[in-house]
Write a structure and sequence with these properties.
Helix content is about 15%, strand content about 10%. With about 70 residues, the chain is α+β, with helices and mostly antiparallel strands. The longest helix has 6 residues.
């Protein structure tokens, strides 16, 4: 199950699990659309491809809410 991290690691933008616009690599590093584009869809941590993260809504979100652990470090 994806951790659904709540923020962009690069700029700190909020990325709720139920909202589109988040991009992840195979290690679940998470970035907003603007940062993913600036990074040319490559994860700066592992070099992997950044792809659209699926959303989680409804009963699935209630059963398995997104992570609250923020990764952005100013």
């Amino acid at each position: 199950m994806l951790a659904m991290r709540p923020d962009c690691e690069r700029c700190g933008a909020d990325l709720p699990a139920q909202a589109p616009g988040a991009f992840i690599c195979s290690f679940e590093c998470t970035f907003c659309a603007e940062c993913a584009e600036a990074l040319d869809d490559r994860c700066p941590n592992c070099g992997g491809e950044l792809v659209d993260r699926p959303t989680r809504t409804g009963a699935a979100l209630k059963r398995s809410p997104g992570s609250t652990e923020r990764r952005f470090q100013a």
